[in-house]
Specification:
Radius of gyration: 32 Å
Number of helices: 21
Strand content: under 5%
Structural class: mainly alpha
Distance between the termini: 60 Å
Shape: elongated
Mean pLDDT: 82
Length: about 550
């Protein structure tokens, strides 16, 4: 039927809800103008319908394309009273009586949809209540029972049982208080410092064969003080805040209506998909970096009274048994390496979570259904920039931690009397004839390898974030500055103790990296710090 040069379909009054009625009308092209030859032009599309509603003279606000697309999708999303008015005018072909009939029909159809949603919600709550009231199954009768077990989310539940490590690890980073994990790491390092003071190895020297009195005290080791008391707590603080931001603020921005109905399982599914990574990191950190390294570097030398590695606070009892006994050294080093292995597992777990956030953001904003809508570009760039800032800050802290490890390892094998004097003489070697001696040490340096793994892991996460998020135009210039800083830090790590004057390069890049923690975008002047003053860490 034709009315005012448009296709007119009378309200069917068949008891359909809004979704069913809307689908029939857009398929029929109700309200679309006839073609020049007098034939229909075809069904409505979201773009055409949004343009038609926004073109109504008295409709000053218009309608968002995203809203119209939700009407077309298979979901429980209804329509607002204001939009019912405009849709009635479209289906009524600008005829007063027809528009009034469609206004009544659409209002009743929307009421039917709302009633259906309430009934479904009530039924779902009743099913969940009945399931919660079921008694726990008897393990003795599980093999004899032939009845199927009802499971609303079988995949998530079974994987959660198999990946309890992943769930517990994620909970550590999802505490209500951001300070729980950082404070625990700081408290553990402080406790080890107090124990070293009680045992008398907090500040202790020994005389080498070449006559150098070398300081190897626990509190003089930056990889046990600066790293665990400053750098790692800051790292965990940023990761925790970034995870909370993505789960509760960032991710919902990119979710469709269907995603929101399952948002309780979206992040959990991502965790389960990375369960093997968490388990691999757990085995490497606890078994190899913790147990096996402690046995090889601390326990066996103490038991056999031999020194294959550079003397340190852990094996000083071999050289000065009057300071600390072998049983006391074994006990203290076992606690220290247990604390270290757990901390390193949490460090790598934090890097995995950062990778998950970046990958999740890239996947969500790259979906076809998201590409077809009018994207809020400021929100996308803001979210991407905030995540990139957090990843950059975490990478800086990880590489600085690796630098502390390598600097301490290089110092123990050097001719410096203490780490501060060693670095000052290295800086003076650029202007004087001071020579630190042959850098090819007679000792094995396992910390060089472990610090390299830490550095590569942190830089890999940042590189992945740069590749996945670098397509946002606003991020390109700050991303180049961030890449330059990370590249300089990585080069500094590789060149530690390679040439005279490396400490000057270390101090320079270290100060730049520390400034980057406050202003990751490296804005000119004090503009960056002023803009960051009221913002969060990430």
């Amino acid at each position: 039927m034709e009315k005012n040069g448009k296709i007119f379909v009378a309200p069917p009054d068949d008891g359909s809800d809004f979704k069913e009625l809307f689908k029939q009308m857009v398929t029929a092209g109700a309200g679309r103008p006839l073609a020049d030859d007098g034939f229909p032009q075809g069904p409505w599309t979201p773009e055409l319908l949004a343009d038609a509603i926004s073109s109504i003279d008295v409709n000053r606000v218009g309608v968002d394309l995203r809203t119209v697309q939700l009407w077309f999708q298979e979901n429980d999303k209804g329509i607002s009273p204001a939009n019912i008015r405009w849709l009635a005018r479209i289906f009524g072909c600008d005829d007063r009586k027809a528009t009034n009939d469609w206004l009544k029909e659409l209002t009743v159809a929307q009421g039917r949809l709302a009633a259906k949603r309430r009934d479904q919600k009530t039924s779902s709550e009743a099913v969940e209540k009945r399931i919660d009231d079921l008694p726990e199954p008897d393990p003795a009768n599980l093999h004899n029972s032939q009845k199927p077990v009802l499971s609303l989310e079988p995949q998530v539940t079974s994987k959660s049982r198999q990946s309890s490590l992943v769930t517990k690890t994620e909970k550590i980073f999802s505490h209500a208080s951001y300070l729980n994990l950082p404070a625990s790491i700081f408290a553990g390092a402080s406790a080890l410092g107090f124990m070293s003071y009680i045992l008398g190895i907090h500040s202790i020297t020994y005389s080498r064969g070449d006559g150098i009195a070398k300081q190897v005290g626990f509190l003089w080791a930056p990889n046990w003080t600066v790293m665990f008391m400053v750098l790692l707590p800051l790292f965990f603080l940023i990761v925790i805040e970034l995870v909370a931001f993505w789960k509760h603020e960032g991710r919902p921005t990119f979710e469709t209506e269907a995603d929101r109905q399952q948002k309780a399982y979206g992040w959990t599914q991502n965790l389960q998909a990375n369960s093997h990574s968490f388990w691999a990191v757990f085995v490497v950190c606890i078994l190899f970096a913790g147990l096996i390294q402690w046995v090889g570097v601390q326990l066996m030398p103490l038991l056999e009274q031999r020194q294959d590695f550079a003397p340190s606070w852990g094996t000083i009892g071999i050289i000065r048994p009057n300071v600390i006994s072998t049983p006391a050294a074994i006990m203290f080093t076992a606690l220290a390496y247990l604390y270290m292995s757990v901390s390193f597992y949490l460090l790598f777990a934090g890097l995995i979570l950062l990778h998950m956030i970046v990958h999740d953001l890239w996947m969500l904003k790259s979906r076809p259904d998201w590409q077809t809508v009018q994207k809020p570009f400021p929100k996308i760039s803001e979210t991407s920039l905030r995540i990139l800032r957090g990843v950059f800050r975490c990478t800086v802290l990880v590489v600085l931690s690796a630098i502390c490890m390598k600097v301490q390892s290089a110092y123990l094998a050097s001719q410096g009397s203490d780490i501060v004097t060693w670095m000052m003489r290295d800086a003076l070697a650029v202007f004087t004839d001071y020579d630190d001696g042959d850098r090819s040490s007679q000792y094995r340096l396992p910390t060089h390898y472990s610090s390299l793994l830490v550095t590569l892991s942190g830089c890999s996460v940042f590189l992945y974030a740069a590749v996945r998020l670098g397509d946002v135009r606003r991020l390109r210039r700050p991303l180049l500055r961030m890449c330059a800083v990370i590249g300089a830090l990585f080069a500094t790590y590789l060149l530690i103790d390679v040439f005279d004057g490396f400490s000057l390069m270390l101090v320079t890049t270290g100060l730049i990296a520390i400034y980057g923690l406050f202003d990751p975008e490296f804005k000119p002047g004090w503009q960056g710090i002023e803009m960051e003053r009221d913002s969060h860490v990430s």
